[in-house]
Amino acid sequence: MTDQRDSAPRAPEGVDTEKPSAARIYDWYLGGTQNWAVDREFGRRMEQQWPLVRPGSKQNREFMNRAVRAALRAGVRQFIDLGSGVPTAGNVHEVVEAELPEDHDAKVVYVDYEPVAVAHATLILEEGMATDWAGIVQADMRDAKSVLRAPETRRLIDFSQPVCLIMAAVLHFVGPDDDPEGLLAAYRDALAPGSWLAISQMSEGDGAGEMLEGLRWFVEQYRKTSNPVWLRDRDEIEPLFGDWPLLEPGIVHLPDWRPDRKINALEAEARPFAWCAVGVKPGA
Ligand SMILES: C[S@@+](CC[C@H](N)C(=O)[O-])C[C@H]1O[C@@H](n2cnc3c(N)ncnc32)[C@H](O)[C@@H]1O
């Protein structure tokens, strides 16, 4: 992946460019442009110690895109993307536009607590003339009520119909004190039968050796920031789906969920360090 310029984009109101932010660092990992020197410096330090962070981020994004396409092909038309971030490409509404005819009836709600993510999403939705059917809510996803009851959520989402709820690379910012199982239950309960839940989560997985050591160092660094990271293993992810059956192939590493391309050697090294799965609410 090529590096970005060292000039900063214009900072939207409320954006603190003195402290690194998880959303902007992740944008840098993906090769985006919504990041500042402080984010890039943090990102570069992470990459030096754990060179798998960029291929891992890309695999995460690709999993999310494949899950959205699968939901669309199954007839789901509503999406809530928790911790949507600022990625410059591969956003849910872009996948929708690529998959469906122009007069589609899909709806998309992005949710992030980071002001730059909100500013960026607002801009790309306005530029793409998508604000009628897609919007962003600035909220902490650990407060399910504030997400589900936000005016923008209520404007766009019909909770009597299935929703695809996406939690891609966001649950590692939800720690044990945040009651992850209770939180997931609150979201699952609010959704209609036939709804989808797509989760990806960083993990020590079945990683080993230097790369596992690097990941542990990476997690330690994030623990010192305002966005501490928590890893979860496979057996901690399954309960997050409650009684929702998992779609094939179940809980797998990111590139193994319904793959549509071959991965390279570096991507293969990143494979062990995250899990993903998609479940569907029974009773439809
Ligand atoms: C690693 S990025 C993932 C972006 C996107 N979901 C993806 O998978 O490509 C994590 C995002 O989650 C956001 N985030 C972290 N904790 C959050 C919270 N409690 N509420 C809302 N957003 C959160 C961060 O601001 C960041 O934009």
From TrEMBL:
SUPFAM superfamilies: S-adenosyl-L-methionine-dependent methyltransferases (SSF53335)
Gene3D superfamilies assigned to the protein according to its UniProt record, in alphabetical order: Vaccinia Virus protein VP39
Protein name listed in UniProt: Methyltransferase
Pfam families: Methyltransf_19
InterPro entries: SAM-dependent_MTases_sf (IPR029063), SAM_dep_MeTrfase_SAV2177_type (IPR006764)
Species in which this protein is naturally found: Amycolatopsis rifamycinica
